[in-house]
Each structure stands twice: as structure tokens, then as C-alpha cells.
Amino acid sequence: MNEPTHTVGLSRRDALKAILVGVPVGLALGTGLGSLAAKIIESSSKEGDSINLNELLTTEQAKLLNEIGEYRDSLALQGLPAHLMSSKIKEASNVSWNYDIKETAVEISDAHKSHAQQALKIQQLLFGDNGKWLVRKIKSDTSITAAGTYNNESRTMTLDTVDDPTSPWFIFVSTHENGHATDPSLMTSSIYPLDNLIKVSHGMARVLNQSTKIEGMFMNYPYSYNIPFIKKGIGEGVGRLFLQDSALIDQVDFAGHEMIVSTLVTIAKEQRVSIGDIKFTKKVCHELGGALLPKILSKSISIAGILLSDWYAPRVEAASKEIFADMVATALMTPDKIQDNQEILTGIAEVLSGVQGKQININDVIKELHVTDDEIRERFVAEQEVVASMEQQSTQPELQQTLDDTEVQAIREEAEMEKQTQNTFWDFISNGTLPQNIGEDSIDIRTTMKKYGHVVSKVYREFPEIMYGLYADDTSFDPHLHIWETWAVAEAWNIDVTYNLLSDTSLIPENLEDVKRRISVLENFISSSAFKRPEGQSTTSVQARHLSHVDALKNRMKIILS
Predict the structure, then answer these.
(1) Is residue 483, in this structure, part of any structural domain at all?
(2) Cα–Cα distance list, 362 to 27, 128, 198 (Å)
(3) Rounded CA gap, 461 and 451, in Å?
């Protein structure tokens, strides 16, 4: 799951928002190198001086770019992705890997050293000696709010250190995040040399071309965390545009408009309002987008204008990043689940070969990924026994066979610190209890943070599922508001902001005005009619915990790995 950089440290929920800030520019493709160069130059006029791609691209590279455009048509995406615009191609032509850089840094303590060992082993298998270019740092997820994330700006991989690192679950997540690391569309500047860039991009497009063609998987998987994101995005786009112009002129063809109106008539009856007064909630947007998506992909209806450029295309582009990483992990872990689809396996082989700079055998990679490392497994068991011995108030003599005294002490100290941090966090979320050390020297800080705790806990008690409100796949937090209003409430409540402010109180002064903004949004929500739940829709905090995105991923993995 891709994650960008944020000052307070927001999670991948905001990555999708960040991705949507810049709408990828579709670039028309010609049939030959001259035509290709002319089209890209024409579409990139805002970049400044024209770039003559005849001087940069070989005939084979131009052929691969043409094929990328053809592959993308299966997702109703037009032309080349933004990372293959002429300026990016020019930038990549000046990149070289012919010098040494530092190896991937590991910021995982002795308490989770086994996870670091496994993560590095997987990186070496997939990327060879070039992994250091793609992953600069590996660290543990101390907040335990995600299975794994990849920060595209710092090129940092963060992994869940709760599960056994030799388990299929951990290997799947680590492989998924490494899939993100290869993705050139996530690179803020070109990291790949030109030939590597084009080969990796071609392999990625080849893989994604199959995402609609595997029954019950990827774009056809009903429980995917990507598809609800696309469906809600299409529905939200239709909702916003429909409220401005119910005719949806220049947005959709006649068949599409007919389908939209028919769906909205049904929704209006359910809400007992006129069609112009519909609340475009998450459920409504999901239902509306769900009706349109398969028709768009099958070319049964056609969309254009803002609906295409600002809503459909950016959502599919963003979701494709997750789908690609999922396809890599699924294909390598369980090739039978993709029906041994050779186009997918060949595409992944292209990507990994492009990274390593040499041809790799995809079957060898799959075989090696399934070999359990007994030393890593033994290390993990020893780490777990140290934590267990703390609870039992006893020592385990056999621990010394694997861990020395310093490691045992470090593991115990970290486990205790993690426990205290989690207790402080949940007490604030559940009860609004503010730690004594916050605002000791500032009345403004203490007063503001107490008010923050009050509104955060009040909203949580009424809508505990709000903790997942910013997840791309969430449909659980859905008060009777337009989806964009619901998003604003969920963003104000953001669980990651709360966690980071409480775990690093030095962040509070510089973010105090933002905290006040969040308080205002939540107070307005509390005072609105939408704050009261409809009868029969009560959700307890225990039930909400079971809506966890991580739990959803694990449930999905049970299906994939079964």
C-alpha cells in the first residue's frame, strides 16, 4: 500500500488523496517513432522546450511504448501514463546505476529482527543487488494500523511486525510492498535509467492488462479494497456533476445517462426524496459507480469530459497501483489463483528483469519464495518467548540459545513501551483522557487538546467505524451526508494524526492550528442531524474493530492462500 510523506505522518488513506491531486495526462500514440515523438511533444507543450525523442529512444523502446498504450485501453485509459511523458523520458535518459550507493537501511529493533531478516531476503530475491535503489529503508509499523505501507518519497517500506515473518501472510504483504517499490508511476523523480524504466513500465502494463480477465480476481474480485474506491469515485463524480447539471451534458453518452437516471430514480424512492434532493452517501455512490464500471470497461457506455478526466481516470490510475502490487504478490505466492496466466507471469518477469538488469526465471522466484528459512523462524519464536516470559514473570533458559542478554532486555523494554503507547492512545480515543504531560507549560495546548479528546471520543463512541473512514475500501462509516462531506469528517478525525500527536508530543505546537480546525469540523458534525444513527444501525466499538482494513486483508488472504 503506497504512502506519501506528511508532516504529521498520515497513512496511506491520504496517499490516494495525494495521487488524485495530479491527474495523469493521457498521451496519444502513433504507429512509428516519429509519430510517437510528435504526439508526445504535442501533448506536453506545457513542459517547455520540445524534446526530440528520436534522439532518445531506440526503435525497440518506441515499440514497447506503443504496446503500453494498447494495454491500457483494456482499462479504458487513454494513451501513456504520466511517468512516461517526454520530460520523464528525458530525465530517465540521464539516470545511471553505474555507481555505488548505501545498502537498504534497516530501522527494526532486536525485538523484531526476524522480520528485518525476512524482508531483506525477499528484497534480494526479487531485486537482486539493485534493491537499494528502490527501497532505501525498511522499518516496523509501531502503530499497527496497517499491514504494510510504502512511502514513495522517502522510498521507505513499513511492515507489520505482529505476524510470523515466515508466514504466507507476511511474505504476501512484503512482496506486495516490493511491488509498489518497482512502480515507476510512484516515483517523484526518475530513479530508473531509461531502458530499465521502459521495460519495467511495459511489464507493469502487461500485467494490468489482465486485471479484468481473471474471473473472481483483481478488477473482478467483489471484496477487493480497490474496486469500492473506483466505484465510489465514479459515483461521487456523477453525484457532483448531476447536482450541477442533471443532463450531464458532455459527460456521458445517451445509454449512460439513461442508466444513471434509472438508478437515481430507484435511490430517490429509497430515500423518500425527489431525485434532485438525493444524498450521495458512500452507499449511493458505491451503488451508482458499481452499475457504471462494468459498462465502461466493456465499452457498452462511453464517458467523457470531467467525469472521465477528473473522476474515472484518476481513480483507475490510483487503484491500478494497488491492483498491480496485489497481482505481483498473488501470482508469486499462489500462481494457481491466476490460473497460471502466462501474460501475468511474463509481465512480472519483465518487471523483475528490468529491475535486476538481467533475465530472471519467474519459476525459480516462485519456488524460492515458498522456502521457509528455519533460522528466521527460530529467531521469531525466541523473540515471542521473551515477550511471553514478561507476562508470566518468569525467565526461559532456552532463550539464551538464540538471544543474548542485551537482546532479551531490549525486546522487553520495547514491548513495554509499545504497550504503554497503545494504552494511552486507546484511552484518548475511547474516553478523551489526555496524558498529564501534554500542555504542562501551555494553557492553550492543554485546553485545545482536551477539547480535541472530547470531540474525538464522542464521535468514536457514536460512530466507532470512523477509524476506517478514510480507507479506500470503506463503506462502513456512512452518515446521511454527501460522500465528500463524510470524507471531510473522517479526515478531521483521522486516527493516524491522533496516534502521531500522542506518541510524539513535540508535533503538537506546530500542528495546533490544524487540531483546532479538526475540532471545528467534528463539532459541526456532532451538532448536525447526521450525527444521530438511524434506528437499527448501531455499531459497538468491538464490532467496529472487526471492520479493520487489516482484518479484511487477512480474510482475503485466507481465500487466496487456501
Answers:
(1) yes
(2) 32, 13, 19
(3) 15
Distances (CA, A) of 68 to 126, 298, 347, 380: 23, 19, 12, 43
End-to-end alpha carbon distance in the chain: 23
Decide which of 256, 283, 312 is a domain's last residue: 312
Using a 10 angstrom Cβ sphere, with 0-12 exposed, 13-18 middle and 19 or more buried, the burial of residue 277 is: exposed
Mean pLDDT, to the nearest integer, of 330-351? 94
Residues forming a β-bridge with 214 = none
pLDDT, tens only, 55-68 = 788 999 999 999 99
Rounded distance between C-alpha atoms, residue 77 and residue 555, angstroms = 31
Q: Give residue 21's pLDDT.
A: 30
Helices (H), 148-299: 168-182, 194-208, 227-244, 254-271, 282-297
pLDDT in tens, 96-123: 999 999 999 998 888 888 999 999 999 9
* Residues of the domain holding 259: 227-312
What integer pLDDT is reported at residue 548 of this predicted model? 46
The candidate with the shortest Cα–Cα distance to 156, out of 124, 128, 123, 129, is: 123
Q: Is residue 297 part of a domain?
A: yes
Q: Residue 291: name the closest of 244, 347, 235, 207 by CA.
A: 235
CB neighbour list of residue 439: distance below 8 Å, 6 or more residues apart:
445, 446, 447, 448, 449, 508
| Cβ partners under 8 Å of residue 530, min gap 6 | 479, 480, 481
Assess if residue 469 is contained within a domain.
yes
Within 13 Å and on the Cβ side, how many CA atoms surround 185?
Answer: 27
| Residue-averaged pLDDT of the chain | 82
In this structure, the chain runs to a length of 562
- Assigned domain for 294 exists: yes
Q: What is the pLDDT, as a whole number, of residue 248?
A: 87
Instruction: Provide the number of structural domains found in the chain.
Output: 2
Q: Which of 498, 467, 484, 559 is nearest to 146 (CA)?
A: 467
pTM greater than 0.90 (yes/no): no
Query: In which residue are the cell numbers 452507499 written?
Result: 283
Predicted confidence at residue 240, as pLDDT, reads 94
Domain closes at, from 312, 340, 357: 312
Q: At residue 304, does pLDDT exceed 50?
A: yes
Q: In DSSP terms, which residues pair with 106 in a beta bridge?
A: 138
